[in-house]
Amino acid sequence: MAGRWRRSVALALLGAGAFVACDQGRRGAVGLDFSIRPPAASVAVGQAVQLRAVATHPGGEQVELGERVHWSSSTPAVATVGPEGWVTGVAVGGALVSATDRATRAVRSVWVTVTPAVLVSLAVTPSGPQIALGTQQAFTAVGTFSDSTTQDLTAAVTWSSSAVGVAVVSNAGGSEGLAASVGTGTTTITAVHPGSGVSGGTTLTVFDRVGLRASSSAGASSGVLSLVVSTPSGTAAGDVLLAAVAVRPASVSVTAPAGWTQIRRSNNNATNANALLLFRRLATAGEPGSHTFTLSASTGSVAGIAAFRFVDAADPVDVEAAQTTASGLTHTAPSVTSTGGGGMLVTAHAFASAATWTPPAGMTECVDVASDALGAAGISLSMHVLDWPTASATGARAAVASNDVDAGNAAAVVLRRAP
Q: Positive or negative, the Cα torsion across 162, 164, 168, 171?
């Protein structure tokens, strides 16, 4: 028998390490036994699970067949399978997924059940809203499923607020996701899907009044026809920017960058004539790092920009006025009467000398800039702010320059709080 059936067994590593025993006295090749793992699988529509073809060596070693096997699905409309055994659910149902040994043609199969799509994420909108104290904000929870479909789950999730002293959020039928402000501050509004545990959230800010975020300023001496002012540090999309520009002489034409709207211009045509202009702008997500104001002529120019949060973006200016001021060191912004609470009073004062300023009583200075070294040349500007919580007259607000009496202009603006 040994002479008739001379055998020699060779072990060859194929694909990802599978071994085959070759019998020279018989036709073909005899493959090692293999199986698919796991022996059955379940996957949701839109998700994937990996199957593996594993062979067992006579010595007990287990190896994956890898690219040696060809994968196929009996029902591709229900489940598809890739070259590495990744099975993707396409539609609810079942499919027989098979692995065929390319060398021996041996086939092994497992049943794969495809279940309905599952929730994979929750998005809570709007993202990062800011509301005034005493108002409400409705939130929506939109779920994304494993098959890439989306569904409004606002009424199906459980809502919570991390700081109930800032806002509380409703789970009552018909008002799910409605947050009511209680105090100022920030809170995280969270939605949790009870069936899956998938959650999402966002931050809600509750404010009581307009706030100054930051300010910046710049000056340019005689003959310089562009004035570049940095965007205040920390400016965020939705902030309202208020710019004051002072120039000599009063006849200078001032061109603001795109996106700025002129509020007021006051020209003082006295000796050493000068002008004061106010502009506003709504900051964007891609807010530039600086803004350049272009001048038709100049014997000195200065500008300041202040960034304010919680201002009514659609109608930021509640009331404003400006007036020329007589030659002297004291320059007074006119009184204006606000129509609502929670606003911000801003005054701007300029005159035709380089000086520093003392703020009006009770106000905080945010800009103090001169175009030249202190003295009679050039021009200087100051801006000041004060919370204005009630609808009332602001009263005249006087700022005092440090030196060199001269004529000027002054303005007052009350910014309207966001609704």
A: positive
